[in-house]
Design brief:
229 residues, alpha+beta, NADH Oxidase, 12% strand, binds flavin mononucleotide
């Protein structure tokens, strides 16, 4: 696939056929993804390929813990887990998780409830000792560390797309990182970046909804004139 076409048409795919992804294909995807950039080229990503059905089910349960706290926040009009959220308001909303879990239990379940059954499931980790986190001492939330890992994950999705496959990077399971750590013997200096699902898309999504360049680009100052053609 032509590169520009690829980056403009790689969606979050959450519905897959039952076609398996071979180890050879998965290896090839990771082999492409490893050319991602990282601070100082330290390549601090680590990947656990989740194959054991029991482990997958346990990981799904942890995913759902985060998911059912995410959903009520969306329903309440919040940006879920935003660092600028009013934490008291957010906590009240998150307390509705049990109701959302119950509603889901009454239906067939969606991607989240079936994430253990996706063709390939990867837990992507970040070795903190390999991350050049230049903003770590600023008196604010750190942004830079993750930037050494998420391009790698995006490359996984691009490499999958190039093979006619699809997937999604997810993060709600990170809420349960301590339990994931114990379950999968992850050492203390390694943190969870994403749970990535991959498979053959059930339907091909061709059009992505995105803001225009003018919407997010200004000239000279943050409140400057919009940068337009
Ligand atoms: C940092 C990050 C975290 C995300 N976490 C989740 C998640 O936990 N669960 C999920 O289903 N999708 C997750 N997504 C996927 C986004 O919802 C998706 O990229 C976005 O809605 C755009 O979808 P589209 O490319 O199909 O338009 C995440 C994406 C990113 C980049």
């Amino acid at each position: 696939m032509e590169l520009r076409q690829g980056i403009r048409t790689t969606p979050a795919t959450r519905a897959f056929t039952e076609t398996a992804i071979s180890d050879e294909t998965l290896y090839g995807i990771l082999d492409d993804a490893r050319f991602a950039p990282s601070g100082g080229n330290r390549q601090g990503w680590r990947v656990i390929v989740l194959k054991d059905p029991l482990l997958r089910t346990a990981v799904k349960e942890l995913y759902l813990e985060g998911w059912y706290q995410y959903l009520p926040q969306v329903a309440a009009g919040l940006t879920p887990f935003s660092v600028v959220n009013d934490r008291i308001e957010e906590a009240e909303v998150r307390a509705q998780a049990a109701r959302f879990a119950q509603d889901a239990a009454n239906g067939p379940g969606g991607f989240a409830e079936n994430i253990d059954k996706v063709p390939a499931l990867l837990l992507v980790l970040a070795d903190l000792s390999a991350l050049a986190t230049i903003d770590r001492d600023l008196d604010r939330y750190s942004m830079v560390g993750g930037a050494s890992i998420y391009p790698f994950i995006w490359n996984i999705l691009l490499a999958a797309h190039d093979r006619g496959l699809g997937g999604v990077m997810t993060t709600v399971a990170v809420l349960e990182e301590p339990a994931l750590r114990e379950l999968l013997t992850i050492p203390d200096h390694v943190v969870v970046a994403s749970l990535v699902a991959l498979g053959e898309p059930e339907t091909i999504i061709t059009k992505l909804r995105r803001d225009t360049v003018e919407d997010f680009t200004t000239i000279d100052t943050f409140d400057g004139e919009h940068f337009a053609q």
